[in-house]
Amino acid sequence: MSLGTPRLHYRLVDSTNERARQLAAQGAPHGTLVSAREQTAGRGRQGRTWTGPAGSSLLCSVIVRDPPRMLPLVAGVAVAEAVEEMQTGTGAEDRPGARLKWPNDVLLDGRKVAGILVEGRPQEGWAVVGAGVNVAVRPEELPPELRERAGTLGLQADAIEPMLDRLLEHLERWIPAGPESVLDAVRSRDALRGRRVCWNGGEGEATGIDGDGRLLVATAGGEVGLEAGEVHLVGA
Fold first, then answer.
1. What is the pLDDT of residues 202-234, one digit of tens each?
2. In 3-state terms, what secondary structure has residue 236?
3. Which candidate, 211, 129, 122, 126, places its Cα nearest to that of 172?
4. Structure-derived torsion over alpha carbons of residues 11, 13, 107, 145, reported in degrees to the nearest 10
5. Which of 41, 114, 159, 184 could lock 155 by a disulfide, CB 3.0 to 4.6 Å apart?
6. What are 219's strand-pairing partners?
């Protein structure tokens, strides 16, 4: 079954991820899609909220049965490729390509245009891939505290559905891909490599992504591999 079928679309919902999780626990099939025009309690990683004006962002969550081990990285690559495709024909093709800030942020020109949240129950054989993409957000519509970090594709609202179509196409192509192919794609878009980063418990220079999808960081005490968590650029 293709991703995106069946689909449940809301004008207003608390969280597409929360609804998709409920459906997955109730046995909804692989590919089930939950989308919304607006969220009241959209979630990002580390308990953060996802904020955006109604009708300006792609807000969606898709159920993946028997998810691959590197699904979070798979989702990042799929979103990045879809973002780049949406730039074609807009006069923005000369912009630098979409980059991945480990583990799940997609950046354009150093600004976050998309965030991904993967949740699930591996013991039950399912996961939910949630994505929020600032497709038609205007910078002045963002909260003041986000304007320095958040970005947008700068398109019109009628580009949200085409963005969804492209995302699902790329996600479907990457889900069955082998780990090495996924890692190669992630490494080619690594926004942190060579940058000074900090996290809860340490600081060092990001040196790449290892074979298990961990972020490698060179510290004063040696190289460490981060499994998950929030990573910040030093000085940002």
1. 899 999 999 999 999 999 999 999 987 778 888
2. coil
3. 129
4. 110
5. 159
6. 222
Q: What token pair was written down for 41?
A: 């309690």
Strands 7-10 and 33-36: parallel
Please report, for residues 70, 91, 175, 216, the alpha-carbon distance to residue 211 in angstroms, rounded to integers and kept in the order given. Answer: 10, 37, 17, 10
Kindly list the distances between the CA atom of residue 115 and the CA atoms of 78, 119, 204, in Å, as whole numbers in the listed order: 12, 13, 24
CA dist., res. 125 & res. 6, Å (int):
19
**Rounded Cα gap, residues 23 and 170, in angstroms:** 23
Helix (H) and strand (E) counts in the chain: 4, 12
Residue 8 is which amino acid?
A: L
- 65-74 confidence digits (pLDDT tens): 999 999 999 9
Q: CB–CB of 119/15 below 8 Å?
A: no
Is 128:24 a contact under the CB 8 Å cutoff?
yes
Strand partners, 22: none
Please, are residues 186 and 164 in contact by the beta-carbon 8 Å criterion? Answer: no
